[in-house]
């Protein structure tokens, strides 16, 4: 068992890593741990994910940076899946994975047999919603449970009070939600043949629906008075950054960010914001802790749906939202490679022009604004814009930025 898997003082920030680029973003911008998937057995088949060889490299990279790695094996497995699991679990142990995330008691048993020195985390797919179930999983060998997303703060506090302190509690605090219970859904299978319980969800809950009366085929009626119909199953995104004191007080030890299918930019920005929020709280823990305005603003700079607080505070969750799209107000213009001799050297990501105002986010830092004056290409020629993806550019500036800083522009 790796010594990486002990929770940091305070609370662990657990970020998604859909592929190697996202892994590096999570590490650079402040994650204590990452969760990722191989090409099989994970609940996000649409993400890039990792080959077995890549998992080994990812664990080596993360451990060099004192970051833990948890690998998902949380699909609802069929017979053909369980036949392939022993070899995979043995590899994870050999690679030094800090934990395997499982949602099925059969897979839990196999993990104990084939990866006996690797911690076992119980996935949110298992729907742990009470202390009896949490205790039972602990007795079965789990070191952590990822709580059902449908719990409120009081529920979580009671689970914490009635379970061993050695059992870690993890909960989702940010990202996409769905209308099914802790991710268990058959809608995608019914409508598209893609099994959500094996990581292939087509997200039909985001689609637009209308009523059709049986004797009036072809006549569609919006469920609400809206010319665009309604997205009756569509959920808002979750954002709990303003509630660090309540989350800590309830006994949550690991704050999980959803998003293995999201971009590396999303992972970087959200990880950086929660890193600042968590660190800000633990510098002077107080129930009166107030999130800094710049951290709040960061959540508007990534692709997102309208935010809510989910079920945490016992009210109606307000998940349904009559809109199938995302808010995308910012895009990455370039990524900084180095700063020297009065220049910022960077690699272009999206077209921007000389004179544009760029919002720059350094790793584990606070954003600042710079003007793209004196824009040049990689050979030092003056240019009016950077139109080509991945082209090297440089900007005249006395500001020194760390490598990996994100230069972005409001659309």
Provide a descriptive summary of the structure in words:
The structure is a single chain. With 411 residues, this protein is of the alpha/beta class. It has two domains: 3-180 and 236-293, Alpha-Beta Barrel (TIM Barrel), CATH 3.20.20; 331-410, Translation factors (Elongation Factor Tu (Ef-tu), domain 3), CATH 2.40.30. It contains ten helices and 21 strands. It has helices spanning 20-28, 52-64, 79-95, 105-114, 131-139, 153-161, 187-192, 244-249, 264-283, 293-298, and strands at residues 12-16, 33-37, 68-73, 99-102, 119-122, 144-146, 168-176, 211-212, 220-221, 237-239, 254-257, 307-308, 330-340, 343-348, 352-353, 357-361, 368-371, 375-377, 385-386, 392-396, 406-410. It has an eight-stranded parallel beta barrel, surrounded by five helices. A seven-stranded antiparallel sheet has the order 17-16-21-13-14-20-18, with no helix packed on it. The longest helix is centred in the middle third of the chain and has 20 residues, at 264-283. The chain is globular.
What's the layout of helices and strands?
Blueprint: E1 12-16, H1 20-28, E2 33-37, H2 52-64, E3 68-73, H3 79-95, E4 99-102, H4 105-114, E5 119-122, H5 131-139, E6 144-146, H6 153-161, E7 168-176, H7 187-192, E8 211-212, E9 220-221, E10 237-239, H8 244-249, E11 254-257, H9 264-283, H10 293-298, E12 307-308, E13 330-340, E14 343-348, E15 352-353, E16 357-361, E17 368-371, E18 375-377, E19 385-386, E20 392-396, E21 406-410
């Amino acid at each position: 068992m790796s010594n990486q898997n002990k929770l940091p003082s305070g609370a662990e920030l657990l970020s998604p890593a859909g592929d190697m680029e996202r892994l590096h973003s999570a590490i650079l911008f402040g994650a204590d741990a990452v969760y990722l998937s191989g090409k099989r057995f994970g609940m996000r088949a649409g993400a890039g994910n990792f080959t077995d060889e890549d998992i080994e490299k990812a664990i080596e990279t993360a451990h060099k940076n004192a970051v833990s790695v948890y690998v998902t094996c949380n699909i609802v497995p069929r017979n053909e899946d369980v036949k392939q699991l022993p070899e995979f679990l043995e590899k994870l142990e050999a690679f030094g994975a800090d934990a395997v995330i499982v949602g099925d008691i059969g897979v839990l048993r196999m993990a104990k047999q084939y990866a006996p020195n690797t911690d076992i985390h119980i996935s949110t797919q298992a729907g742990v919603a009470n202390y009896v179930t949490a205790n039972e999983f602990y007795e079965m060998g789990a070191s952590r449970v990822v709580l059902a997303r449908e719990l409120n703060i009081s529920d979580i506090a009671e689970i914490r009070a009635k379970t061993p302190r050695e059992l870690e509690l993890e909960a989702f605090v940010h990202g996409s939600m769905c209308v099914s219970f802790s991710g268990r859904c058959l809608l995608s299978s019914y409508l598209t043949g893609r099994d959500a319980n094996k990581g292939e969800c087509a997200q039909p809950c985001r689609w637009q629906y209308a009523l059709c009366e049986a004797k009036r085929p072809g006549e569609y009626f919006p469920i609400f008075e809206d010319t665009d119909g309604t997205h009756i199953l569509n959920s808002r995104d979750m954002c709990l950054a303003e509630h660090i004191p309540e989350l800590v007080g309830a006994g949550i030890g690991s704050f999980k960010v959803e998003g293995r299918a999201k971009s590396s930019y999303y992972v970087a920005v959200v990880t950086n914001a929660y890193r600042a929020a968590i660190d800000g709280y633990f510098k002077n823990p107080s129930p009166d802790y107030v999130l800094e305005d710049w951290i709040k603003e960061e959540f508007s700079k990534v692709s997102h749906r309208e935010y809510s607080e989910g079920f945490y505070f016992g009210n109606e969750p307000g998940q349904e939202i009559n809109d199938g799209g995302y808010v995308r107000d910012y895009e990455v213009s370039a990524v900084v490679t180095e700063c020297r001799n009065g220049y910022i050297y960077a690699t272009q990501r999206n077209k921007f022009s000389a004179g544009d105002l760029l919002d720059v986010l350094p790793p584990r830092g606070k954003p600042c604004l710079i003007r793209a004056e004196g824009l040049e290409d990689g050979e030092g020629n003056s240019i009016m814009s950077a139109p080509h993806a991945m082209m090297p550019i440089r900007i005249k500036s006395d500001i020194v930025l760390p490598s990996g800083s994100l230069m972005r522009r409001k659309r």
